[in-house]
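Posting here for the record, re: oxa(dethia)-CoA.
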Amino acid sequence: MKQIKIIGTGSYLPEKILTNKDLEKMVDTTDEWITKRSGIKERHIAADNQATSDLGLEAAKRAIENAKIDKNTIDCIIFGTVTPDTLFPSTAIYVQKALGLAGVPAFDISAACSGFIYGLAIAQGFINNGSHKRILVLGGETLSKVTNWEDRATCVLFGDGVGAAVVEESNDDSGIVSIYLGGDGNMSNLLYQPAGGSRIPATEESVKNKLHTIHMEGNEVYKHAVNAMAEAAKRALEMAGMTGEDITYFIPHQANIRIIETTAKFVNVPMEKVFVNIDRTANTSAGTIPTALDEMNRKGMLKKGDIILIDAFGAGFSWGAAVIRW
Ligand code: UT7
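Prediction output follows.
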């Protein structure tokens, strides 16, 4: 099996910042409640004229620049998102067009918060079967566009942002050592956007009832998130023949600081090795891991040989984890 590695990262978070204090003026909530229950202080919000592919394009350009490659050598684009520009065609195809890469296959993956890790797994498969050599994998959202801004239980939790990575076959021992993916459709109604698909097409009624926004049973999702994140991390580590002690950095999905802390404890990684930016970004679904990875990369935190564990859980339910040797 060929090992694939990340040769460049990029990310883009929209300029506008919405703080907990701002939210206090919009719904019956407090900065204290949001901080204590989730760890979030602020989130980035896309402008009215910014769709997910616009954020993706910026992230992609930055990843290409960081990889120091000619963009024309990219031969596939995969975008993990549940907030596509349009239901069809894909968001990836808009990025392809904007990059001037007509002819290159480009498609989305709907795996919610696990979208980036699913994307890496697909890229690994494509590179291994020889069909593609250099793949742009993106993950991220404009969740603000599907948020019910009157529902305090959900509107305080999400943010906008996209991250990207360029991957290709590794020429040394660095790269993705293991990837584990999982899913369970039995609890799909605990976190979903009910309308807008073929089950409930858009009607006046569906819009009036805000069925085109995020619906979540936070408490229930929380319990499953903790278990699935722990299980995924354990499986990815086992597949890599490693334990928590081998980890240089743990980058968990940023949905709730309490979920992050519990998962870190389970995998036996001290909090000093856990990357947390939920306070500044909130939950950007498929965007949390690639934007975190890019932030760390740009800060010079990642050194050759570092062992990084990434781990995500989200709607579906879907989950996944991977061990990367930088
Ligand atoms: O990325 C995909 C995966 N998503 C997740 O992993 C999210 C998982 N869930 C969570 O992170 C947590 O469940 C939440 C942060 C969503 C909620 O935290 P919680 O500790 O589970 O709170 P809760 O839902 O049990 O609500 C506690 C109380 C309730 O009031 P009562 O019934 O005790 O009177 C809520 O109505 O807090 C109330 N509440 C709020 N109060 C102030 C709910 N939202 C708010 C709010 N501000 N924004």
